[in-house]
Amino acid sequence: MHVRRQSVRNTAATAAAVMALSALVACGGSTSSAGAACLDGKVKIGALLPLSGPAAGFGQGTHQAMQFAVAEANDAGGIDVGGETCDVELVDYDTKGTAEQASTGMNKLISQGTKIVWGPQLSQEVTSVQQIAQRNKVLFVHSSYAVNGLSPEMPLVFAMATTASSFAGPMADWVSTTYPDVSKVAIVIPDNQGGQDTAKIDKEAYSDAGIEAEVSAFPEGTADFAPFIGRLLRSGPGIIDVASTPPGDAAVIIKQLRQAGFDGPIGRIGGEATSAIIKAVGSAEGLGEFFYYAALDVNSEPIKTYFAQFEKKFDKEPLPVSAQVLPVARLLLRAIDEADSTDAEEVAEVLENMEIDDPTMGTAVWGGEDFYGIDHEFIVDFFAGRYRDGELTLTPLDATDG
User: Fold this and answer.
1) 267 contacts: CB under 8 Å, gap ≥ 6
2) b/e per residue, 188-223, with b = 16+ CB within 10 A?
3) Largest Cα–Cα separation, the chain
């Protein structure tokens, strides 16, 4: 794997130092000055995700990753906290994809004694919980592409997936090579922070690749897309990119574009959600000519092994996006175990120094300093996915940090 400006540090000394500082308190006890123990005999991890609504295709898959990581840890005997071995328990809160519910959920999780949170998912959710988390010294791991999602001023915040700042450039270059006759792209987004942040990154990437890009925003919560589709087509784009539009809305837009006679390429380089979009559209054939950022190859043996293990454990197929964020779910639990504490600062220090070699996704690094100012972004190589007449091809691309 090739990732520019890699930032992998020696983990052994740091982990040992952190473990030496951890408090030796009994499992099920309260907190100590040096670290936190289990709560009610368990390590409780908050899951603050959109489990319903248009973004449920994101949230459910992200939730599945932590579900699986928790099951792995518990099946292996639990994790060590405060000198005792305890099971891990996932405490769910459905944000429904809104900033209001995300902040309410973060406050509720904190009131229950949770100091480590998996999520939130969307940019507006992340922004809404930042001050709450900082004030209460909560570590959270999100998957948004918010331009303010990571910073040196927020050392307890991590990104569980490679963000658009790292993959938009290579994807736009691939688009310009694959569709050399197309000179104009329309970037379709919901009119919220997540859409605007992604559009800013994608527009710059397309421009650098020599493609004119215009942003077309629809009001969040739109039910009737027909007027928007009409205006979009009158602008005459050669390519339409639905960017980070939630899967449910993206599927509606794609279906209506095809029904209206648009036969050009439709893409989505704002994040992986293709399986959820295909399910909502009805078939891969219904996508027509479609390209997308593909975080993984679902037909690779490690991914198929994970899918089979998940289905055996939970009696249902996982969403592919779960494999994408599974490495960081595993790392987070390992960091708690190695820190021997649920104290957010101690866990963060261990987590940021961990080398990443995951059995499902392979090697990756902590990066992001060039864009965010801190190496707290999970960066791994990926693919450009392309559907033609329902047939998929994947082109390997290198991730870039900055």
Assistant:
1) 175, 185, 239, 240, 241, 242, 290, 291, 292
2) bbbebbbbbbbbbbbbebbeebebebebbebebeee
3) 67
Q: Are 152 and 206 in contact (CB under 8 A)?
A: no
- By the 8 A CB rule, do 138 and 116 touch? yes
Residue 168 to residues 12, 70, 146, 373, 402: CA-CA distances in angstroms?
A: 34, 32, 14, 18, 10
pLDDT at 220: 86
Give the model's pLDDT for residue 399: 81
Helices 56-75 & 274-281 angle (0-180, nearest 10): 130
Residue ranges and CATH numbers for the domains of the chain are 12-162+299-380 (3.40.50.2300), 164-294 (3.40.50.2300)
CA distance 5 to 399: 11
Summarised one tens digit per residue, pLDDT across range 128-153 is 999 999 999 999 999 998 899 999 99
pLDDT at position 36, please? 60
User: What residues in the chain have per-residue pLDDT under 70?
Assistant: 1-37, 400-402
- Per-residue pLDDT tens for 297-310? 999 999 999 999 99
Of all residues in the chain, the percent with pLDDT exceeding 70 is 90
DSSP secondary structure of 209-278? TT-EEEEEEE-TT-S--HHHHHHHHHT--SEEE-TT--HHHHHHHHHHHHHTT--S-EEE-S---HHHHH
Of 68, 78, 59, give the one whose Cα is nearest residue 308: 68
